Every structure is written in structure tokens, then in C-alpha cells.
Amino acid sequence: MAGSGEGGAVRWFDRATSAADQWPLDRLLAAKDGRRISVVVPARNEAPTIAEIVGRLRADLVDAVPLVDELVVIDSDSSDGTAALAAASGATVHAAREIRPDLGGHPGKGEALWKSQFVTTGDVLVFIDADLTSWGTHFVTGLLGPLLTDPAVELVKGFYDRVLDDGSGRHAPQGGRVTELVARPLLNLRWPELARVVQPLGGEWAIRRRTFAELAVPTGYGVELATLLAVYERSGLDAIAQVDLGSRAHTHQSVHDLGLMAAELLAVALRRLGPDVEAADLWQIDRALDPPWRARPVPLVERPPFVTLEAADAPAG
Known about the structure:
Elements lengths: L4 H12 E3 L5 H8 L4 E7 L3 H17 L6 E6 L6 H7 L3 E4 L13 H8 L7 E4 L4 E3 L3 H12 L5 E9 L7 E2 L4 H14 L14 E4 H4 L4 E2 L4 H13 L4 E11 L4 H19 L7 E5 L7 E5 L4 E2 L14
Parallel strand pairs: 1-11, 2-3, 2-5, 3-4, 7-11
Antiparallel strand pairs: 5-9, 6-11, 7-8, 7-9, 10-14, 12-13
Helix pairs in contact: 2-6, 3-4, 7-10
């Protein structure tokens, strides 16, 4: 495999890592070369943040310059007006469960990203989380740079310092709790070349449509890890690039919610290492409850590769 071994991983990091400011708009517009770009924002109950995210993306990258061709929000069962706010701010909004209802529906981020393939036409798909509170439109331009300028690159991961949610405004150079306690140890032990991906679970990433269409997609939070592993196994380390986006702030989740995410990531890894993982519940203890435990199903469903479906109404890619 390209770049195998520790030396190869070091060379890959030096070669494949760039900063967002290395990809100015004029350079991207010159490199676009007729390709269509779709920005997809999966959202569930993100009314406090979705209007600003959509509005800034629309103003800077759709209206001001002809870079982004589609700005799409995939709404996952929101009950707080997220969809209406996104539409009023300039996005095309689709309810995830109303996209190809004949295929059924599942809750989860991966489901939204998988279904976005039916309602977008971009040759390049850029995914941006909907809960960002400190960010910039350079998130999109930075992610596009390697894909528009290097035909060997199939997947671009964003990375950043996290702004701590303790009110201090301090930056944390490490990844999040699930990244450092689950994803990075897994990668080090089984896929060590990928340990140099700074934010393997980061929600800001971009991929070629033709590549994403050939991948199985977990319906929940396992989508980022599954995509990273799939591109690496199929095409090698040189098909992956990463871009420093600066800093990022977003809403934070409870430890119990992170535990469910961790269980899903372990299932993604185990499925790729051996026999399939059977459906299971994650038992969690909360002494504020009576009785003090609850069982939550671990999302294990994976959608098949898009190209395997007979989707006559799907856009060509």
C-alpha cells in the first residue's frame, strides 16, 4: 500500500497536510474547471446556529462568487424550526425521511449524508456540521483545495483546535473525548498509518461523489470513521489529505451520549476486522434515574453503496 510504514506516514503528513489559507478563492475558481460543488449540512434541532451557518455560506460562496453550486440542508426529524430557518436563510432543505421513502428511514447523521446523494448533483460533496458556533467559510474553501487541485485525492479531512466550552475561550489542541479515548487508540493499534490523521472524527470533510457512492455508510456517527477506513483500504494513504481549519467551537454532548457514539465506532471497527456485530443495547447507569439504568440501542445499520441501488431519479455522478 502506498506510503506504508512509519516513514511513509511521516512523508504523507508532510505532503498531504495544508492550511486553509493556502486555498484562496481565486485559486479554487481557476481549478474548478466546470465541476459542480455541493455543500451539505446535516441538521437535527439546530435552530440556534443553522441560520448563521447557511446565511454566511450562501453570501460568501454562492452569491458573491460562483464556487458552490448547491447549498443543501438535510433535516433529520427536527422539531424546533431548523428546516424553516435554513430555507429562509438560503438553503435548499430536504427532510431525510422524505428522500426515497421507499428505502425507509433511520435517525442519524450518516443517514442524512447517505440520502444527500439522491438530492445533490455535485461532483464534490462538502459536509459541514450544523452546530458550529466559532467557524468561517474557509472551512469549505480549505476542504475543496486538495480535491480541486490533485486528482489522486479522494477524501479531505478538516482539523482544528477545539474551543473549550468552559467560558474561557481557550483552545484545546487535542481531539475530542471520543477521538482520543476510542478512535485514535483503534487507529494506532490496527491502522497505524491513519494515526496521523489529526481529527479522524471531525464533522467537516469533503469527498468525490464517485468515491462516496461506492461506500457503505453507517446511519449514525460512525460515518466519519467508516469513510476514512474505506478510502484508505480501497485507495491507500495518498488518496487522503487533511487541512488545518484553525479553530472550531460547537455544542458539546453528555458523557452518556458520547458513550453511545463510542459503542458505534467500536462496532464500525469490529465489523471491518472480523465477523459482523450483532444488534445490542448499551446499558448506562445514571443515579438520577429510578431505576438508575437504561438501555439504549447502538446504531448498527449500514446503508449499501449508492451505486448498487436502482435509483432512476438519482443525479448522475
